[in-house]
Amino acid sequence: MKQEPEKTEKQFREAMAECRGVFEKKLHDYGASWRILRPSSLTDQLFIKAMRIRSLETKQESLVGEGIRPEFLALVNYGIVGLIQLDKGYSDSTDINAEEALQLYDRYAAASLALMLRKNHDYGEAWRGMRVSSYTDFILTKLQRVKEIEDLGGATLVSEGIDANYMDIINYAIFGIIKLSE
Q: What letter would DSSP give residue 121?
């Protein structure tokens, strides 16, 4: 497989900018209402989005009218919200303004990009040879792992934490966005 790391970084940044645009618009409409969500609720929201993608991939028909791509965008945004919630903890109210929410978003988007660049170096653009449906299955697997970690109260023996799984979910979702755009 031809190595295209510069192309991948450009496409990743473009996809992330699209996700941020959606996040910013929803932040305008709803504020940071997601601050109320506990980690397990965020995991379930991510699960719902990933299961909808899998259902659409299997049935190849949407009765709601929205396709797979918007759900991958939602996975990116909820993944970043999850990272913010892990860092700040949940709140009983909307306790941050739009500016702070966007700064936090940008921090975790940059961290996700940095992780992707490191992994892409080591794996040599292998994601380009994968099917979009595999990204969905890997995301669902990561979510199952997160549920297990949550059920263990975070007391894992050798596994990565919830944050690492959320970042992998973000990156697989970005790959899905890129592949569906090509």
A: H
pLDDT in tens, 58-67: 987 766 767 8
Give the integer Cα–Cα distance in Å for 59 and 133.
13
In sequence order, the 6+-apart residues with CB closer than 8 A to the CB of 103 are: none
Q: Is the pTM of this model over 0.90?
A: yes
Q: Is the dihedral of CA 158, 164, 169, 175 positive or negative?
A: negative
Instruction: Compute the radius of gyration of the chain from its Cα atoms.
Output: 16
* Residue 80 contacts residue 105 (beta carbons within 8 Å): yes
Cα separation, 78 vs 105, whole angstroms: 10
Kindly report the three-state secondary structure assignment for every residue of 73-101. HHHHHHHHHHHHHHHHCCCCCCCCCHHHH
Helices marked H in the chain — which ranges? 5-30, 39-59, 68-88, 98-123, 132-151, 162-181
Query: What is the length of the chain?
Result: 182
